[in-house]
Design brief:
YidB, Arc Repressor Mutant, subunit A, 7 helices, YidB-like, single chain, 0% strand, mainly alpha
Length: 122
């Protein structure tokens, strides 16, 4: 085991990556849900529905429990090139970015759709 291996498994390093992710994720979510290259919230919702994730999307927009989405599903919907570009732009590992986005997107869509409806400007 080399020094880089021990650093990679270090709780301190993982904590720093988590803090970095926490600081950057709102910006990344804004890119994904806003008018970044994805076309806004309505476009993301449409892409998710076209990819067979309509039940998850309905749960996020509705008023009940939010169903989960996996990092792999989200990466397929957004496109691996887009995820790689976002990860490079914000200097976050691709797998970490995908995982955090998959955890945060349901809540973000839920918050953006009060009363169980997407805003008209989405």
């Amino acid at each position: 085991m080399g020094i880089l291996d021990s650093l990679e498994n270090s709780p301190e390093l993982k904590g720093m990556l988590g803090q970095l992710g926490a600081a950057v994720i709102p910006v990344v979510l804004g890119e994904v849900m806003g008018n970044g290259g994805q076309g806004g919230l309505s476009a993301i919702v449409a892409k998710l529905e076209q990819a067979g994730l309509g039940e998850q999307v309905k749960s996020w927009i509705g008023t009940g429990q939010n169903l989960p989405i996996t990092a792999e599903q989200l990466q397929q919907v957004l496109g691996s090139d887009t995820v790689k570009q976002l990860a490079a732009r914000f200097n976050i590992p691709v797998d970490q970015l995908s995982q955090v986005l998959a955890q945060q997107l349901p809540g973000a869509v839920d918050s953006a759709s009060p009363n169980g409806k997407l805003p008209h400007t989405a």
